[in-house]
Amino acid sequence: MKCRSLKISHEGKSLVDISFEISHSLALVGQSGSGKSLTLKALLGLLPSSMEHSMDIESDFDLVPGKSVAFVPQNAFTALSPMSRIRDQWLHDREYGKELFGVLGLERSLYDRFPSELSGGQLQRAVIAMALSSRPRLLLLDEPTTALDPALREDIVEILLQLQERFGFLMLFVTHDIKIARTLCRDMAVLNGGKVVESGLSQSVISAPREEYTKKLIEANFANREFRT
To answer: What global pTM score does this model have?
Structure first.
């Protein structure tokens, strides 16, 4: 999938003006206000009506949120209703949902429980299963490991790698953790002020950054283990 142009503006002010390509997996990294979240919202059709936007995308599939495009949010606990069992919040084939639970290493009995009865790691896996139940071609992820401890973060990253190999979907991953981005995503794009200032293979961007902005992000990330987004 190639995005030749994505432009977002508000009251005449340009907020995002970027292009990118997702040939396998792409990480978008940058500080708060860099345009990462707006990019995800545009692809999901969730931009507020007050914002103007245009997209020129070349793809061999139609971008249909909830079908060919699926989304995994940052906080799994806020993504689901606490008053309904997991099974009752499934939007697609429930039998396939149970199968996906098994693929993600979840006991099928959890399918019948309330969100509050699952641990953070279990609930994040359940939300990933829900996203995959539509058999998407593109999976959008908004920092899905932020609320997890380091060990669980590594587990989720490994699960995502295995799932992508098994199902063959593309990934666009927004994260505050460059280390995870390097592990999970083949390519990386660094955003600053709504523009891509540096892009390439993740390992190359991290090991030999060209832009001072990128260097500072990397230094802050590895010095403090994370930086704010």
So the answer is: 0.92
